[in-house]
Amino acid sequence: MILDIGAIATGFVLRAYAGAAANGIILSAWFLLCTATLALFLGIEKRKAELRLAQIRGNKSRSVLKDYSLLLLARMENVVTTSTVVTYALWSADIVLLAVTRDYLLPKGVIERETSSLYNLDSKVSFAYFKIYRLIRKKN
Q1: What are phi and psi of 28, to 5 degrees?
Q2: Which of these, 35, 34, 28, 29, lies nearest to 14 by C-alpha position?
Q3: What is the average pLDDT value for the chain, to the nearest integer?
Q4: How many Å separate Cα 138 from the centre of its chain?
Q5: Residue 11: which residues within 8 A CB-CB, separation 6 or more?
Q6: How much is the pTM?
């Protein structure tokens, strides 16, 4: 049951690895965790939409849907939503720490400005994520 959502998420993480390999970039662990939790969120939402559609139509087109309930998916969604926000915050903090440790390369004012803008971006991304979450809830 949870393996199929994990398989969906694995596809997104592999795409991130492929993109990094194609561009010669090394991905941070926090970025990969953030990608994985966001992909789990998308997988859960996909299964919820399929389950609701199956309930409306009266038949379950996928055999895996019999193992899910809307309550289980809502609980999984809550855990993954929290994890996504936390991993994103840690990823952005990791970037800030890298900038601070390189202070011999950058003037002090640049580091403070960049640190401030990253934390500002973190809150905007969190609010956007919750707005999407609210819109999904509202439609259902």
Answers
A1: -80, 155
A2: 35
A3: 77
A4: 20
A5: 39
A6: 0.68
